[in-house]
Design a protein that fits this description.
Largest sheet: 7 strands, mixed
Distance between the termini: 40 Å
Order of helices and strands: EHEHEEEEEEHEEHHEHEEEEEEEH
Structural class: alpha/beta
Strand content: 15-25%
Oligomer: single chain
Helix content: 25-40%
Shape: elongated
Low-confidence stretches: 1-10
């Protein structure tokens, strides 16, 4: 039964490849695995924790329309087309991903949350544990992205602030804050959009960034994408955790953003020093009353399910070579580092499928050689 977790007789199931996550990188991986001859459900499954297609986009706030969404890209083999720019991006992507899964009969099982991935000492298949049973796989492609790990930074006074605090992860509508003074903390695209939406909804936004906003006129083209990916790959290759998206990409200086700057709306108050019961204190010594704080402070890689593999380096990252995890050759990681962006996720899926196929060929060759010796 496509698209749903199926009833099975045995709690232990065996496949060649398990893909964890059905976002852009996971769907791209599954598509390219099928193109390489792996049979859906028999050889490969995709385990997705969401109740419906869409990946992280399924949870994006309704006010984020398609024209305001940052760099949506086609999945391999099926063009997104030209949706209504005013349609919520979550609806566009959910529909598109659902069409994609059906068009290519991808073996997505949902909702299935992966609890942990473990390795036996004998070098055999990895064990992928879920509440519904365990999968054994020669290769695991982890494509869980970042949405499930919102980052809440520590600031003095966060625990004494009496107003509302919420993260990008939980934001739904600027209309909830009409007439309120809202502090938006963060220097990325989401923070910029929140400031503009709050102002348009009749709220009074204050914007705090650790550094001056990095607006750039440079086009976000293929050359720019390659440079960004190279910079991120340098960090992950050294075992360092990926830096924030905006530190690598900058903020596109669109006409809308330019107008916001000129109107004095998109002007950062500078770094936040801390919070008091009903106010925010900035590092320049000024203090402003605020009713709510919106933490647009990004996300971290959702990799708790990989903790049993002990992949982390002392610096907190995972040493990568492209999609390869150097400490665990049976694991491929996409939606991490450079491939966490919509620009790199589809390419990473293709690379992961190629790497998985190569490993499976190696296993088959070893089995054949062992059989000949016997």
């Amino acid at each position: 039964m496509h698209g749903q977790a199926r009833e099975v007789d045995a709690p232990l199931r065996r496949v060649r490849v398990v893909v964890i996550g059905a976002g852009q990188a996971g769907l791209s991986s599954a598509y390219h695995l099928a193109r390489r001859g792996l049979t859906p459900h028999r050889d490969v499954v995709v385990l997705d924790a969401n109740p419906a297609p869409g990946g992280a986009w399924l949870h994006r706030w309704p006010a984020l329309t398609f024209d305001a969404a940052h760099a949506l890209h086609d999945l391999p083999g099926l063009r997104l087309g030209t949706p209504d720019p005013e349609e919520p991006a979550s609806r566009v992507v959910t529909r598109y991903y659902g069409d994609y899964e059906r068009t290519f009969a991808l073996p997505v099982l949902r909702p299935v949350r992966v609890l942990r991935v473990e390795a036996d000492d004998d070098g055999g298949p990895l064990r992928v544990s879920t509440p519904d049973g365990t999968w054994l796989a020669d290769v695991v492609i982890s494509a869980t992205g970042t949405w499930d790990r919102p980052y809440w930074p520590h600031y003095p006074g966060r625990d004494v602030f009496e107003g509302r605090q919420l993260h990008t992860h939980d934001y739904r509508s600027a209309g909830e804050f009409t007439g309120r003074r809202v502090l938006v903390v963060g220097g990325g695209t989401s923070a910029v959009q929140f400031v503009l939406q709050l102002h348009a909804a009749g709220a009074t936004p204050l914007w705090s960034t650790r550094r001056p906003p990095s607006f750039t006129r440079r086009p976000f083209d293929a050359e720019w994408g390659r440079e960004v990916e190279a910079a991120v790959d340098t960090r992950t290759g050294a075992g360092l955790p990926p830096a924030s998206v905006v530190s690598a990409t900058g903020l596109p200086l669109t006409a809308e953003y330019r107008a916001g700057i000129d109107a004095g709306i998109l002007v950062s108050r500078g770094p936040l020093a801390g919070l008091r019961e009903r106010s925010a204190v900035f590092t320049d010594g000024t203090e402003e009353p605020v009713d709510a704080v919106l933490w647009a402070t990004g996300f971290r890689a959702a990799l708790d399910h990989l903790a049993p593999l002990r992949l982390r380096e002392p610096g907190g990252g995972i040493v990568m070579d492209g999609v390869h995890v150097l400490k665990e050759p049976r694991l491929l990681l996409v939606g991490y580092g450079a491939s966490a962006s919509t620009l790199g996720a589809s390419r990473a899926g293709r690379a992961a499928a190629a790497a998985a196929a190569a490993r499976l060929r190696g296993i088959a060759s070893q089995s054949a050689a062992a059989g000949n010796l016997a």
